[in-house]
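Q: How would the structure tokens look for this protein?
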Amino acid sequence: MLEKKSKILIVEDDLDVADMLNAYFRVQGYDVITVNWGEDGIRAAVTARPDLIILDIRLPDIDGYEVARRLRADRKTSAIPIIFLTEKRDRSDRLQGLELGADDYITKPFDVQELRLRVRNSLRRTQQDTLTNPVTGLPEGELVEEKLSQCLSGKKTGLMAVALDNLDIFRDHYGFVASDDVLRAVSLMLQNAIREVGGEDNFLGHLSPTDFVLMLESGSLATIEERVCSRLEQWLDYFYPFKDREQTMPRHDRLAVRIGSLSLSEKKIDDITMLKQALLANCK
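A: Here is the predicted structure in token form.
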């Protein structure tokens, strides 16, 4: 069994094959969703957000190529690994699937053990990719937790959190490209600020997609906090189109940052969860 169940979406119109794959992967410890039509597959991918999709090419409504094309065009589903399952063997068919961003391709009749290994390997590659934020390229998840654990054992590091507020509201108004530009700009500014204060062991990563954590020598906390605060407050309005900068949008709906610091030598914290909570609670 997997410690944390991965979710697989199977889009297959052959009911016998669909039932067999459903039963097989459930026994392997996966959560499984099965649909038999292409349009249902697209809806299921958007609503259920599976970790991987096994996609038949020959479907009764739209073909698997069209399903893959639409999934890759939607930001919500663009990164989900897809394994094509098909009777087509021609090289041109395989290339068409790979051009659409398929992660793998297996032909019928297939060895279910081989399919299981391909699913496992694809999920492992995806899990490794999630160690860094796809927009900023900064560490997140387990990499950050590992660093925080080192902080708890060392007790010498100063920590600072930078929370970027209302990015979801900004995204709704100006789109994903603009919001990603904001996130990247903030991350670059933080990297520059860390570089300016120096220190070999300094670290920058994500506590969440919009919350950053900086780890550095305690003596640098005041300097970098003042520097970051003044720069970000000056920059935030410039992320808006010129015509919108003077709009009467309520301030509580506009982009804003909250910053807070924490010295582990001055505060007793026993675990990572408490540490994250204390860091974000200090953000003002």
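The chain has a mean pLDDT of 84.

The radius of gyration is 23 Å.

Upvote if useful.
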